[in-house]
Known about the structure:
The protein has 45 residues and is an all-beta fold.
Amino acid sequence: MSTFTMPDGARQENEQHIRTFVVVQRGxxxxxxxxxxxxxxxxxx
Length: 45
């Protein structure tokens, strides 16, 4: 994930995330019904 700054000013760098999407087909169209973005925690040294 690209570097970004949180609203409290904390800078987030080199984060890894797992993205999940739930899509359905209705009336010949694909619709996004749900998405989830989960940060992958790094083990502490």
